[in-house]
Task: structure prediction
Amino acid sequence: MKKLINATENVVKEALAGMEALHPELLRVDYENQIIVRADAPVQGKVGVISGGGSGHEPMHGGFVGRGMLDAACRCRCLTCCQELYRRRIEC
Result:
């Protein structure tokens, strides 16, 4: 089966742009850090829930960002820890 990828070096950026274009009222994207965030985040009085993943499934958890679900999702490199990206999101 062929992959629907224009260029491998742009696959994550294009996937993030597609999600943002499809649901601009629900989420926003930090392209530099490759993080998808609820459009209304941070929510006062709510503990933020963040997930990370990747390994070829980018942006895997981005589809779960929204009301009643994740507050943010970050993309991590294959077989790496997302700790630094989580820290960046928490500081935002």
User: Anything to note?
Assistant: The longest helix spans residues 11-22. The domain at 8-91 is CATH 3.40.50.10440 (Rossmann fold). The chain has a mean pLDDT of 78. The longest strand covers residues 50-54.
